[in-house]
Description:
The protein is an alpha+beta fold and 93 residues long. It contains two helices and four strands, in the order E-E-H-E-E-H. The protein has helices spanning 47-56, 77-84, and strands spanning 23-28, 41-46, 65-69, 73-75. The chain has a four-stranded antiparallel β-sheet with strand order 2-1-3-4. A hairpin with a 3-residue loop joins strand 3 and strand 4. Helix 1 crosses helix 2. The two termini are 18 Å apart. Residues 1-20 are annotated as: Disordered.
Amino acid sequence: MTDHPTTFRAEPADLTDPDWDDRATLYKIDEGQGLLGGFDGLRRGTLAELVHFVQTLPEHERKDYAIQESGDKRYGPHEIAILAQHDNLPPAD
């Protein structure tokens, strides 16, 4: 697993070649507290595991979650949906 910052110089996260095995944390987006309101991680795992988990949620709830990947990448609901459709997303366990 890599642990390098990919938003160096505030560049957007690359959705074309994600590191599926990278460590990540799932957060609930709290209204009024911002993307990582309260910094309360709900679940930890690989990026692939968390993308799969979010896809198991009812569609109307998916907008309430974000993933913080190690190395400073943040994926909001729209990016998570894009990642879920990625050609090389490993299958869920």
